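dude i think i finally got it to work??
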Amino acid sequence: MKIGAPKEIEPGEARVAMTPDSAQALQKLGYDCVIETGAGAAAGFTDDAYKAAGVEIAKTAAALWKASDVVAKVRPPQEVELKRMREGQLLISFFWPGQNEKLMELAKSKGANVIAMDMVPRISRAQKMDALSSMANIAGYRAVIEAGNNFGRFFTGQVTAAGKVPPAKVLVVGAGVAGLAAIGTATSLGAITYAFDVRPEVAEQIESMGAEFVFLDFEDTQDSSASGGYAAPSSPEFREKQLEKFRELAPEMDIVITTALIPGRPAPVLWTKDMVEAMKPGSVIIDLAAERGGNCELTKPDEKIVTDNGVTIVGYTDFPSRMATQSSTLYSTNIRHMMTDLTPEKDGVVNHNMEDDVIRGATAVFGGEITYPPPPPKVAAIAAAPKKEKPKELTPEEKRAAEFEAFRAQTRTQVTLLGGGAAFLLLLGLVTPASFMAHFIVFALACFVGFQVIWNVAHSLHTPLMAVTNAISSIIIVGALMQIGSGSWLVILLAALSVFMAGINIFGGFLVTRRMLAMFQKS
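look at this
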C-alpha cells in the first residue's frame, strides 16, 4: 500500500504531514511513500531530500490522491479534496468532526475512512500519537517568543552601568500542554512567571517549573478535571472569583498568555476589556484561543492590534505553522506512530482494528458509517482529586465517651498482658528450681527498668539516636562499676574496659553535638 502527503491548500499553512525521516520509518513498516511536489518546501524539506529518502514525487494533487491508499494531511480536508477520495481509502489528518458534519457525510458517501488526529484519546498509551499536544507544545513556546518580539524590554532583570532593568512579569492562564510550554520558556528567559488553572492538581507542576501558582480564595475550589485531560467548565461563582483575581493582577502584568480552550467549544472570555484597560502601556497579550473566539474580549483572530492605552493583543491562529520545520517533524512522527499501530504485522497493510481503544477513539468515519462521537475513554488523563470530607466535630459528651472507651480498651489490654505474664511465671515456677526463678525475676525486672530508662530519656539538644545510645552506655557503666569490686582480675579488667569504652561513647556524643551546634552559630 502507498501512503501519500499532499501539499496543504489552506492559505498560509506551511506544515507537511510527511518528512524524509518519517518516510524512511514508514517504509520500514512496508509502505511505499508518495508526496506532492513542493509539499515540504515551506517547511524546509526539498523534493531532492524526499527523493534521497526513497519517496515518489507526484506532480499534482490529483495524481497523489489517486495513487495513495492512505493520505496524511495536516489541516482538515476541503470539499474538493474529499471528492477525490474513493471507497476504502484512509485519510489521517486533523478533522474536527464535531464542527465538520458535512465533511463526515461526504466521506461517508465516498466510502472512505477517516482518522481524526484531534480525536486521539489522551491516555498514556496514545501519547506518542497525540498531535494536539505536539502542536500545543509548539504554540506555547512560540507564544512567548512572539510576546518577546512585541515587548519593549528584556524578560530577565539586569543591573548595568546604564541603569537597572526590572524583570518582566508574565501571567499564563491555563496550564495545559501549551500553558506549561509557555511557563517553561518564560522562566528560562528570566521572567517572573505566574500561572493560573482551574485544576488545583496542576499547582505542583507549575511550581516545579519555577512559576508561582495563583490561588483563588474560593471556599469550594473545584476539582475541574474532565475526561481527556481538559478542564471542565467552571461554575458562575467560581468564574466571578476568577475574574476578580485577574482584575487584581492586570495592572502588574507585562505579558499575559491565555491558553484556555476545550476542542469543540467556544473559548471562555477570561480577560475582559476593563482588564486590558488596567494594563500598563507596552504590555502584550497573546491569545492562543483566538481561533475559537479568544480568551481576551478584544482579540481579533489572525490579527495584531494595539489598544488606545498601548496594549498589544496578538490573535494569530497559526503559531505551529510559524515554526513549520519543527511542527512538521513532530506531527509526522505522530502520524508514523499511528501507522505503526495500524500495521501490527509491519507488512504494509492497514489493519483498522476498531477493538483498539486508541484507533476506535480517533476514527470518525469507517466502513460507510459515521463513528463519531467515540465512546468515552476508560481512564481519565488526569484524575480529579477526591473530595475531602471534613471530620465531624464532636460534642463534649461524645469526646468524654470516646476517651472513656479508649481508657477501657487500654485497661483491658494491660490486665490481659499482666494476667498472661503472671500465669506464665506460675507455670514456669512449677517446673524449674527455686534458684532459676530468683535469677529469672531479677532478669525480667532489669529488662523492664532498662527499657523504661532508655526510652524515657529526653533528647533535648541530642538527636534521639544519641540519647538512646548514651542511655545504654550509662547502664553499661553502672553495671561495670558494680563488678569492679570482684575478686577475679579478669572481671575487673573487663569492667574497666567497659567503663572506658562506654565513657568514650558518652563524651564523644556530647562533643559531636557541640560541633553540630557550632555549625549554625555565627563566627
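The first strand starts at residue 2 and ends at 5.
im so relieved honestly
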